[in-house]
């Protein structure tokens, strides 16, 4: 799928995740955590495409579909991710497993697998922790030491990466969920070139669901005790429906 599709679907899903918690989010303590979580999910929504080549959205400051608006941290993060996470992990996997780690079509390799996004997310969190540790020795920056926002970002990043995999599962290229031990892809029938209307419909459904949940919880029509179960269950149910509507699993038994 295109970068803009990943961003929209991931951000819309994050709104569904956060909507049931809306009454408790509008506090001075919660707002920074929410922003950091969303920032992590934003980068995560683009991160698996680091194996795609320099045309991937994560290597460019221009936000896809944003009419020329730029976010200059994106390529900085993208290239840092490429050289400090992806290449070292690819090298390690190559030593252990040999050339079989390379997908035939040269895309959707390690960063497009559960084990890949987990290892990359761990490395990102460790690097951030080390950077904050170093900065904590600077006067007035001591609160950065072991700051919980580091782990909030890491969690948002991992969630964004996982949503990227779900989104790519819907298209006709699919994902190697058992990479590098199995190269059969789980795929759908959505065209990844942006011409298929289904991702846009999914995004609208997610936004409507987020709005309805926000209203229900803010108004108290649903008790606060149900906020965390709803945060977990509603996105899962919606994505199961989206995967089914995308034709998953579509069969194509070849090594890719």
From TrEMBL:
This is Membrane-bound metal-dependent hydrolase. It comes from Methanocorpusculum labreanum (strain ATCC 43576 / DSM 4855 / Z). The chain crosses the membrane at residues 31-50, 115-138, 144-166, 201-226, 232-250. Keywords: Membrane, Transmembrane, Transmembrane helix. InterPro entries: YdjM-like.
């Amino acid at each position: 799928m295109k970068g803009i599709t990943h961003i929209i679907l991931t951000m819309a899903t994050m709104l569904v995740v956060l909507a049931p918690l809306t009454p408790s989010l509008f506090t001075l303590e919660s707002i920074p955590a929410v922003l950091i979580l969303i920032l992590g999910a934003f980068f995560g929504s683009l991160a698996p495409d680091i194996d795609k080549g320099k045309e991937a959205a994560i290597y460019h400051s221009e936000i896809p579909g944003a009419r020329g608006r730029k976010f200059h941290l994106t390529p900085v993060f993208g290239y840092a991710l490429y050289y400090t996470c992806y290449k070292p992990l690819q090298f390690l996997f190559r030593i252990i497993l040999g050339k079989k780690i390379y997908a035939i079509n040269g895309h959707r390799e390690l960063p497009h697998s559960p084990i890949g996004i987990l290892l990359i997310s761990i490395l990102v969190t460790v690097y951030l922790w080390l950077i904050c540790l170093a900065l904590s020795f600077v006067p007035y920056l001591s609160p950065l030491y072991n700051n919980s926002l580091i782990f909030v970002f890491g969690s948002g990043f991992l969630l964004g990466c996982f949503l990227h995999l779900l989104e790519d599962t819907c298209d006709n290229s699919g994902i190697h969920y058992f990479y590098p031990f199995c190269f059969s892809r789980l795929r759908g029938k959505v065209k990844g070139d942006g011409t298929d209307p289904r991702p846009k419909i999914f995004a609208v459904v997610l936004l409507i669901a987020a709005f309805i949940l926000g209203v229900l919880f803010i108004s108290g029509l649903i008790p606060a005790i149900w906020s965390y179960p709803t945060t977990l269950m509603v996105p899962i149910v919606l994505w199961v429906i989206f995967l089914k509507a995308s034709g998953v699993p579509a069969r194509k038994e070849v090594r890719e």
